[in-house]
Automatic annotation (TrEMBL):
The lineage of its organism: Bacteria, Bacillati, Actinomycetota, Actinomycetes, Streptosporangiales. Pfam families: LacI, Peripla_BP_3. This is LacI family transcriptional regulator. GO terms for molecular function: DNA-binding transcription factor activity; transcription cis-regulatory region binding. It comes from Actinomadura rudentiformis. Residues 11-65 form the HTH lacI-type domain. Keywords: DNA-binding, Transcription, Transcription regulation. InterPro entries: HTH_LacI, LacI/GalR-like_sensor, Lambda_DNA-bd_dom_sf, Peripla_BP_I. SMART domains: HTH_LACI (SM00354).
């Protein structure tokens, strides 16, 4: 009996229309975000919805509009990486801030193994989401092309080698790495090592290329070790570099966590930063100014990257014409005591 009364008390679309003084179709158009409603009628409907506490039937709305009001963010990394590294938190904050005003909900999905990817692909192409954002992709990942082929608007954060996505957002990684290396050369450093990121990721390739551009122009030999953008890999790579070249006088790391890992190794080896070895990272994360000494780094606006990814996806979901489907954000060097 109580349940029946509760159901009867739930406001209907017709009651909203009567309260607003408009037709049922007008209420439906307002709820579904149609532009074919006057500002006066829209305001009356929204006020009636607020006064009555009307909650649209999302399942019915999805059947009519083919919209779920949900977008997925796919991160091709482990859960530990996602929560340990500040880069991902920044991306998510940026995406969320852009989605807040749209009513779109964000679904976070992690995928590593082929089986996980297969299940995720089946879900994402099954009309469960309106669009997909992907970041931290490795290699020639087939998922973006499969999503687009299935009619699911997709925007990438970064562009892996071998892919030609419809739309993506990145920073000028090559230029940022070149600026960092050129700065070290200007300071008289000549044994400049690089801790590069994975070479199956566009960001890893481009930052290594920028480092090499600067050294080639100066006629200085390169010295490279590889990591996976984690702090632990920075520790391993720095130890390898010290073993191979104990006379190195600078380290450019392709992200801040690897730079912080390198600083740990240098401290343990009794080397002074920056007197003996200068260190530069890439990202300008929240940990950079707290390092010992504070870390010189290439600034990239991770939150802005997330906002731009969401902005492009929203436009594509709405069917708007996107004049610039590829956005490349500028970087700049932030000088601190480590270099």
């Amino acid at each position: 009996m109580t349940m029946r009364r509760a159901r009867q008390a739930r406001p209907t679309l017709e009651e909203v229309a009567a309260r607003a003084g408009v037709g049922r179709g007008t209420v439906s158009r307002v709820i579904n975000g149609s532009p074919r409603v006057s500002a006066q009628a829209r305001e009356a409907v929204l006020q009636a919805i607020d006064e009555l506490g009307y909650v649209p039937n999302r399942a019915a709305r999805t059947l009519v509009t083919r919209r779920t009001d949900t977008v997925a963010l796919v991160v091709a990394e482990s859960e530990q990486r996602l929560f340990d590294e500040p880069y991902f938190a920044g991306i998510i904050r940026g995406i969320s801030s852009e989605l807040n005003a749209t009513g779109l909900q964000l679904l976070l999905a992690l995928a590593q193994s082929p089986d996980e990817y297969a299940r995720l692909e089946h879900y994402l192409t099954g009309q469960h989401v309106d669009g997909v954002l992907l970041t931290s992709l490795h290699g020639d990942d087939p998922l973006p092309a499969k999503l687009e082929a299935s009619g699911v608007p997709t925007v990438l954060g970064g562009c892996p080698p071998g892919l030609s996505p419809v739309s993506y957002v990145d920073v000028d990684n090559r230029k940022g790495a070149r600026l960092a290396t050129e700065y070290l050369l200007e300071k008289g450093r000549r044994r400049i090592a690089a801790i590069a990121g994975p070479q199956d990721m566009g960001v890893g390739v481009d930052r290594l290329a920028g480092y090499r551009d600067a050294l080639a122009a100066a006629g200085v030999p390169e010295l490279v070790a590889y990591g996976d953008f984690s702090e632990g890999s920075g520790v391993t790579a720095a130890a390898e570099l010290l073993d191979r070249a104990p006379d190195m006088d600078a380290v450019f790391a392709a992200d801040d966590p690897m730079a912080l890992g390198a600083m740990q190794v240098l401290h343990k080896a009794g080397l002074r930063i920056p007197d003996d070895v200068a260190v530069i990272g890439f990202e300008d994360s929240a940990r950079a100014p707290l390092a010992d000494p504070p870390l010189t780094t290439v600034h990239q606006s991770v939150e802005n990257m997330g906002r731009e990814m969401a902005r492009l996806l929203i436009a594509r979901i709405r069917g708007e014409r996107v004049t610039d489907p590829v956005v490349i954000l500028e970087t700049h060097l932030v000088l601190r005591e480590s270099a």
